[in-house]
Amino acid sequence: MFNPKDIIETLANNVQQTASPFGIPKFMVNTWFKHASLPKKGEYLLFTGLMYQFTPYIEKSTQYLEKYEGTRMAGLLKYARHIPSYISGIGLAMITSGKEKKNAGQTLKNICSLLKKSKVDFAYRPDLDNYSGILLYDMGDQKGFVAHAKKVAQKLQKAGIKKIITVDPHTAYALKELFPKYTGINFEVKSYFELLNLKSKDCGLEVTIHDPCFFGRYLKLSDVPRKVLTNLGISASDIRNQGEFTSCCGGPAESISPSLSNEIMEKRAKELEEPGKPIIAYCPICLGNLKKSGANVEDLSTLLVRHI
Fold first, then answer.
1. 3-state helix, strand and coil shares in percent for the chain, rounded to the nearest 5
2. Considering only CA atoms, which of 238, 290, 285 is closest in space to residue 266?
3. What is the b/e burial string over 87-118, where b = at least 16 CB atoms within 10 angstroms of the residue's CB?
């Protein structure tokens, strides 16, 4: 296990310098929209929080953490905060697979297609789409989180944004629950699947759904994706730990202890595989972590786009 203090200080330093937990400049992380022909004005602002875009970098970082966990090299992590964030960030960006970056962007394009199909009046402005700071909050750096959240919230407020569409549970929780509490700024926040209105179609398909902790336990939205799937003739098999009683995928632990993360992940993957059906996730962290187990898993948006 790595020293949590070293991880927290490194992440906090990166966010402070570059507004990214990995130190990668946003222009290198957020490129998916460039050929997507998205409107710049609408009732809702699509706010990705950059979480799907970060998944290839999370995977690459975790590979190195797994390699050095439990070795003498693990102790060197405490010096990472002394390296300018943009230098280490650009280095990470350069060694991360271009294919994985493209795949992460495709998920966001799928979500846009679903919103358009449902005739949702939304816009996307990359200048307003920023990381929420949620990892700082999760790891106990409340001061760092609040400072960053205020900058993000104030920028949205200044632009006149009132209604926001999120695409992942971590960003949804941050904007819906934490921003009002710690910044005093409120937005009407909807997760994209809450706004979907897709035509019924008998797919004759059954899947197993992995509910993310934030959607299942805290925001209590796990019934909504099931309703969307039902309208397309797709049923969800029941498992023991689902909805408000869902089990963690192990992803949140990977920055502290990849071995612990893998242990939790393997246990959860086994639960999800019991019905013998394709597995659906609707969180980028859960999706990436469950894929590492070798499970047959794909994102909710990928399944929906294929069947509309």
1. 60, 10, 30
2. 290
3. ebbeebbeebeeeebeebbbbbbbbbebbeeb
What are the residue ranges spanned by the domains of the chain? Answer: 4-194, 198-306
pLDDT digits (tens, 9 = 90+) for 214-225: 999 999 999 999
The beta strands (E) that lie in the chain are given as 44-47, 122-123, 163-166, 188-191, 205-210, 234-236, 279-281, 297-299
Are 211 and 242 in contact by the 8 Å Cβ rule? The answer is yes
Mean local confidence (pLDDT), 230-258: 86
Cβ neighbours around 207 below 10 Å, total: 20
Taking the complete model, does pTM exceed 0.70, yes or no?
Answer: yes
Residue 296 identity (one-letter amino acid): N
pLDDT at 71 over 90: no
For residue 153, the model assigns a pLDDT of 98
Mean pLDDT, the chain, integer: 88
Q: How far does Cα 96 stand from its chain's mean position?
A: 18
Q: CATH topology for 198-306? A: Rossmann fold (3.40.50)
Residue with tokens 């953490």: 65
Q: How far is CA 70 from the centre of its chain?
A: 28
Q: How many CB atoms lie within 10 A of CB 78?
A: 15
Return the pLDDT at 76: 44
CA distance 216 to 210: 9
State how far the Cα of 100 lies from the Cα of 32, in Å rounded to an integer: 12
Element (H, E) at 155: helix 142-158
